[in-house]
Design a protein that fits this description.
Layout: H1 2-9, H2 12-29, H3 33-58, H4 63-92, H5 103-130
Helix pairs in contact: 2-3, 4-5
Amino acid sequence: MTWLTNLLVGGLVEKFTAPLLAAYQAKLAAETDGDRLAADETIKRLEAARDIAITETADRWSATRFGRWLIVVPFGLWWAAIYLVQIVNPWFGLNLVIVDVPKHINDMALILIPAIVIGDAGALLARRIRR
């Protein structure tokens, strides 16, 4: 069963188990209301991070996930290359040039990247509302 869980959620459960256990123990050992509230906040934060991580790994075939890999990552790498060349050229006296993205690709990216971000935000909101 552990093997199947690791395959499905990529070991994320184990990543959050020890911190959550420690937070629950801190709550039980708390002597003041302030300590209990602090432990509760830690528990809520860890549970939210765990839920987001598990949901993200479970949604491997979503359109927004493919969009991130096929659109956002290459576009981000292109922008990173532009900044890198702007830094490296003066330092080393080079004349490296990054070829500009064709206008029609740039126009698509300016529409698709915000759509992916909005899609991710909407999916996260929908999951939160369903709970």
